[in-house]
């Protein structure tokens, strides 16, 4: 079973869109997901700060800025 994490920040409209997509797709597929605020941790901000939202699958970066739905679904089906 996979674990999806969306790296976000407050006030980020692209993050809101990504969370909406991830929430919907993960609910359909029964995959657990969470969100993490990059501004809450200096290391996360340094790593992801200028690219949010960033989508991680099992701790590995899958993509950033938007959810590519078909690609995301394929990755979760593996």
Verbal overview:
It comes from Saccharopolyspora kobensis. This is Glutaredoxin. Pfam families: Glrx-like. InterPro entries: Glutaredoxin-like (IPR008554), Thioredoxin-like_sf (IPR036249). The protein is an alpha+beta fold and 78 residues long. It has one domain: Glutaredoxin. The protein is 42% helix and 27% strand. The chain is built from 3 helices and 4 strands, in the order E-H-E-H-E-E-H. It has a 4-stranded mixed β-sheet, covered by helices on one side. Strand 3 (54-57) and strand 4 form a beta hairpin. It is globular and about 30 Å long. It starts with a strand and ends with a helix. The model has no long low-confidence stretch (mean pLDDT 96).
> Main beta sheet, described?
4 strands, mixed
How much beta, percentage-wise?
Answer: 25-35%
Biggest sheet strand order reads: 2-1-3-4
CATH fold title: Glutaredoxin
Query: Would you tell me the structural class of the helices and strands?
Result: alpha+beta
Got a strand count?
4
CATH superfamily: Glutaredoxin
Note the run of SSEs as H and E: EHEHEEH
CATH architecture: 3-Layer(aba) Sandwich
How many H/I helices?
A: 3
Radius of gyration, in angstroms, nearest whole number: 12 Å
The total domain count is 1
Pfam families: Glrx-like
Protein name: Glutaredoxin
